[in-house]
Each structure stands twice: as structure tokens, then as C-alpha cells.
Amino acid sequence: MKIVSAALACAALLLVPHAYAQEDDGHFEGLPAESLEEAVANLRTHTALLEARLAGEVDQEAMMDIHEISYTLENAIARLSTELDTLSAALEEVHLASEQWDDETVTDQGEVFVNGVRVILPE
């Protein structure tokens, strides 16, 4: 039985996209999310992959895929969280600058905010 399980696990690895790198400790790194655009793209594609695996039987093969997919989703969510903190700070700058009639800060930080939101929520 252990041989069958090991064989199934190995076969499942062949079905997972090759973009995943395995670390020395046996865990996968997932795809990076080095920018907001990359985080949103990875979140979109890997949520669809997760949804597809959840739509079928969640057997050992699916569980392996889901485990690997989760690393990329975690990277995307971490980047998105960081970017939302940046957008929150920019919006606060807009808010405070608008109270002081500081048009330069409103314009500059307003652009930062709008551009970031447009990546997350494209028109």
C-alpha cells in the first residue's frame, strides 16, 4: 500500500505546473509575487486552479496539487496585503493633505492610490 501511495504522489507531481520550485526542506516556494500586477495575476490564475481541483474529487492527487497551489496563493495574498497597506497610507495622505489644501500631495498620493486600485479592480 505504501508503494502505491508513493507512486500516486510521484505521478501527481508530474501533473502540477513546472513553475513550482522545491526548496531543500521539501516544501514548494510557489510563484513569486514581486509586484501588485504579478500578485493579482497569480491570485486570478491560481484561484481558478484551486476552484477546478475543488470541483472534482479531492483525492490524493488533488490534495498534492492544492498543496502546491496554496504556496503561490499565499505569496500573492502576502504581496496584496503589503500593497493594500501602501494604498491605505497613500489614501490617508490624500485625506490629510485635502484638509490642508495641499494640492501637490493630493495629486501625487491620489495617483498612487488610483493606480494601485486600477490594478486590483481593472475597469
Major sheet characteristics = none
Report the structural category: mainly alpha
Number of helices: 4
- Roughly what percent helix? over 70%
| General shape | elongated
Q: What is the end-to-end distance? A: 53 Å
Strand percentage? under 5%
Domain count: the total is: 1
Report the strand count. 0
**What is the typical, i.e. mean, pLDDT?**
85
Note poorly predicted spans. Answer: 1-21
Radius of gyration: 20 Å
- Give the H and E element order: HHHH
How is this fold's topology laid out?
Blueprint: H1 2-15, H2 36-55, H3 60-99, H4 103-120
Can you give a write-up of this model?
The chain is mainly α. The protein has one domain. Helices cover 75% and strands 0% of the residues. It has 4 helices and no strands. It has helices at residues 2-15, 36-55, 60-99, 103-120. The chain is elongated. The N and C termini lie far apart (53 Å).
Which keywords apply here?
4 helices; 75% helix; single chain; 123 residues
In summary, what is this structure?
This protein has one domain. Helix content is 75%, strand content 0%. The chain has helices at 2-15, 36-55, 60-99, 103-120.
